[in-house]
Amino acid sequence: MKDRIKIVQAELNRRGISVGTVDGIIGTKTKTALNSIDGVSTGWPNSRKVIAFIQIMCRDKGIEVGKVDGYWGPQTEFAFDQLKHVIQFGELPSPWRDNENPEKRNPNNWPAESELDQFYGKVGENQVRLQLPYPHRLAWDKRKVIHSFYCHEKVRDSLCRVLTQVLDHYGMDEIKRLRLDLWGGCLNVRKKRGGSSYSTHSWGIALDYDSANNKLKWGRDRASFSSSEYDKWWEFWEAEGWVSLGRTKNYDWMHVQAVIV
Ligand SMILES: [Zn+2]
């Protein structure tokens, strides 16, 4: 909530409706300022006024936000993310959904979830060792460095290409800073967390990275991998047809899989 209020206060100041210090706290000045805004109802609670003003800011910057109603729905959440990007970088994030070319985006013909047995065989089988282009650290024990892990034979070459590009683009220092080496596992024969079917990890065709900062139920507002610093990281995966659940479903940002959704 505090970061929302700060953005609102900064914008009110910018619009010449002085609220004083940008401190993330709704004081008298901020309240008065919000009440003077067209479209913000004075009868609303403060939190709803703040959200409504964020919606107005989005609308004014041409970001699709829907109705200015002061409610924090998925559209407002997504619009807010775009708004923050505009504030920070002066432009909208590059629309990664627009350059989807179905042929290009699945060059390895990864199967759908219903075709996994047919394409990959039985869970836990056909595993090979991948020699890593750059060393990984175990996410659950960062002192342990690994240079290889097991994955399905059909994904190994693609994985190697992705990680080689990551290394070439970011370099080892950036990889560590962005925690692109914090490996949370690949092959693991188990049921989905919160589900009854096998996890894609059971075939060794999914990977998790930096699980502590990209928890299963976190969305764009919390998951570190949703920030624009990771755009290239995801582009390398997506160019090989790998699917990020974060980018497509906005949960499980740690996870990337060779299965289309
Ligand atoms: Zn996973």
TrEMBL record:
InterPro entries the record matches: PGBDSf (IPR036366), Zn_M74/Hedgehog-like (IPR009045)
Official protein name in the record: Peptidoglycan binding domain protein
Organism: Mariprofundus micogutta
Species classification: Bacteria, Pseudomonadati, Pseudomonadota, Candidatius Mariprofundia, Mariprofundales
